[in-house]
Write a structure and sequence with these properties.
Mean pLDDT: 82
Domain Histidine kinase: 240-448
Shape: rod-shaped
Membrane topology: Multi-pass membrane protein
Catalytic activity: ATP + protein L-histidine = ADP + protein N-phospho-L-histidine
Keywords: ATP-binding, Cell membrane, Hydrolase, Kinase, Magnesium, Manganese, Membrane, Nucleotide-binding, Phosphoprotein, Protein phosphatase, Stress response, Transferase, Transmembrane, Transmembrane helix, Two-component regulatory system, Virulence
Radius of gyration: 48 Å
Largest sheet: 5 strands, antiparallel
Helix content: 40-55%
Protein name: Signal transduction histidine-protein kinase/phosphatase MprB
Strand order of the largest sheet: 2-1-5-4-3
Low-confidence stretches: none
Number of strands: 12
Structural class: alpha+beta
Number of helices: 11
Distance between the termini: 44 Å
Length: 449
C-alpha cells in the first residue's frame, strides 16, 4: 500500500483530533442534559405525588369514601396515573395499571413507611414511579411518564452527533487549509527543482518569501549555484580538451594516411600496424567530434524555421542514399520550428546508426500531430533487444548489435547525442520494433506551428 502524503496525514490528524474533542464534548453535554432533565422531572413528579397523596388522605379521612371517586378527583392530567394500595386491594382510575406495575421491593419500602422513587418501563415506555406512605393505607403510588423526556434526550443526542460530525469536517477543512499554506514553500522548492532538472539553471528561490525558511532558500540557491558552476566547469573542460586534441589528431591522421598510402612498400606486419593506427586515429577523431557536440548539447536550443524535408534529403545525398527514403506524412508542413544544428545532427546520427548497425536505413519519415513533430528512421537490421532499448541512449553505451556487427567501431555517443538533442527541444527519443528491424523515433514538441 502507498503511504499517504504529508498533507493527507496532517488533514486526517486534524479531522481525528476534532472528532475526538467534539465526541468528548458531545458525551459530556449529552450526559449533563439527560441528568438535568431527569432530575428536574423527578423533583416535579415527587412534589406532585406528595400533593396528590395529601388530597387522597383528606378524601379517605371522610369515613367510607368512594375510593375511585377520590382518585378521579385528582388533577393529574394525562402524564400522571395514580394508584392506591389499601388493605382490601388496589385501586386505580384506569385498568392499565395495577399491582403488577409496582415492583415488590418498592411496595415493601412504602409499606414500612419509607418514601421511594424508581424509574421503570411500563408497556415499553419509560416512567417514574413515586411511592408515598399513607396512614390507613399500604401506600399511594403515582406513575409519571418520561416519554417526553426520553424523546427530548434523543433529539439532543442526534443534534450533538451532527455537531460532532460537522466539527470533524471543519477540522479536516482546517487541516487541509493549514497544510496547503504551510507546505506552499515546499511546493515552491519542488517546482524549482523540477525546472532546474529540466535545464532552467536560472531558477532561484526568493529568500524573503518566508522569514522562517530563509535558511532553506539560501541553502537551496547556494546549492544550485555550485551545481551550475560544476556543470559549466565540466562542460568547458570537455570542450577545451576536445579542441586541444584536434590539432595533434589532425597531425596523427595525416601521418597515418601517409603510412597507409605507402603500405605496399612495407612488410606485412608494418602494413597491418599502420592500418590499425589509421583506423584508431579515425575513431579517435570521431570520438573527439562527438565530445564537442556533446558539450554543445548543454546549451539551450535556438529554434528557427527549418525546411526539414530538404534537410533530410540533403543528409541522404551526403550519405550516398536515395532521396526516395524520405517520406512526409499527409498534412505535415515542410518547415518546422526547431534548432537547425541539433535537428541535422540528430538525423545524421540516426542514419549513421542504421548504416553501421542496422543493415542500412529503409525509410526516413517526417510526421506528427498536435504540434509535435515526429522523426522516424527505420532500418533492416536485427532490431534492438528489449533490455537494451533504454540504455542505448546513455553515454558510452553500445548495444549488443554494435558489438556483434561492428566490433570495437563506434564511440557510444551517437544515440546519446540524439537523446540530448531531443531533450533540448523538450521531447524524447526511443526505439520501437518494426519486425524485422528497428524504428528509432524522436518526438519534438512545438515543432509544428
Amino acid at each position: 500500500m502507498t503511504r499517504p502524503g504529508l498533507r493527507a496525514r496532517v488533514t486526517a490528524a486534524f479531522a481525528v483530533g476534532a472528532l475526538l474533542l467534539s465526541a468528548l464534548m458531545a458525551l459530556f453535554s449529552y450526559d449533563l442534559t439527560r441528568r438535568s432533565l431527569l432530575d428536574e422531572r423527578e423533583r416535579t413528579a415527587v412534589r406532585a405525588a406528595y400533593y396528590d397523596a395529601a388530597v387522597v388522605r383528606s378524601g379517605l379521612d371522610t369515613g367510607t369514601p368512594d375510593v375511585v371517586a377520590v382518585l378521579r378527583s385528582l388533577d393529574t392530567g394525562s402524564a400522571r396515573r395514580p394508584l392506591l394500595h389499601l388493605p382490601d386491594g388496589w385501586y386505580a382510575r384506569t385498568a392499565d395499571v395495577g399491582a403488577s406495575s409496582v415492583p415488590m421491593e418498592l411496595q415493601r419500602m412504602v409499606a414500612e413507611g419509607k418514601p421511594a422513587v424508581q424509574r421503570i418501563r411500563l408497556d415499553g415506555q419509560p416512567a417514574l414511579l413515586v411511592g408515598v406512605p399513607l396512614p390507613g393505607a399500604l401506600g399511594y403510588y403515582e406513575l409519571t411518564s418520561l416519554r417526553e423526556v426520553e424523546e427530548t434526550v434523543q433529539v439532543v443526542g442526534l443534534a450533538l452527533i451532527a455537531v460532532a460530525i460537522m466539527v470533524a469536517g471543519a477540522g479536516a477543512a482546517l487541516g487541509w487549509y493549514a497544510t496547503r499554506h504551510s507546505l506552499r514553500p515546499l511546493t515552491a522548492v519542488a517546482d524549482a527543482a523540477e525546472r532546474i532538472a529540466g535545464g532552467d539553471f536560472a531558477t532561484r528561490l526568493d529568500p524573503t518569501t518566508d522569514p522562517d525558511l530563509t535558511r532553506l532558500s539560501s541553502s537551496f540557491n547556494e546549492m544550485v549555484d555550485k551545481l551550475v558552476q560544476r556543470i559549466d566547469r565540466d562542460r568547458r573542460f570537455a570542450a577545451d580538451v576536445s579542441h586541444e586534441l584536434r590539432s595533434p589528431l589532425q597531425t596523427l591522421a595525416a601521418a597515418a594516411s601517409v603510412l597507409h598510402r605507402r603500405r605496399e612498400h612495407q612488410d606485412e606486419r608494418t602494413a597491418t600496424a599502420a592500418g590499425l593506427v589509421a583506423d584508431e586515429v579515425t575513431r579517435f577523431q570521431r570520438l573527439v567530434d562527438d565530445l564537442i557536440q556533446l558539450a554543445r548539447t548543454e546549451q539551450p536550443a535556438h529554434r528557427e524555421t527549418v525546411d526539414v524535408v530538404e534537410l533530410a534529403r540533403a543528409t541522404c545525398r551526403e550519405r550516398s542514399l536515395p532521396v526516395s527514403l524520405v517520406e512526409v506524412a499527409d498534412g505535415v508542413p515542410r518547415e518546422w520550428w526547431v534548432d537547425r544544428r541539433r535537428f541535422a545532427q540528430t538525423l545524421l546520427n540516426l542514419v549513421e546508426n542504421a548504416e553501421r548497425y542496422g543493415g542500412g536505413p529503409v525509410a526516413v519519415r517526417l510526421g506528427g500531430r498536435d504540434g509535435v513533430g515526429v522523426l522516424e528512421v527505420d532500418d533492416d537490421g536485427p532490431g534492438v533487444p528489449p533490455g537494451d532499448r533504454e540504455i542505448i541512449f546513455d553515454r558510452f553505451v553500445r548495444g549488443r548489435a554494435a558489438h556483434d556487427r561492428a566490433g570495437t567501431d563506434g564511440t557510444g555517443l551517437g544515440l546519446a547525442l540524439v537523446a540530448q538533442h531531443a531533450d533540448a527541444h523538450g521531447g524524447s527519443a526511443r526505439v520501437l520494433d518494426r519486425g524485422p528491424g528497428a524504428r528509432f523515433r524522436v518526438e519534438l514538441p512545438g515543432a509544428l506551428r
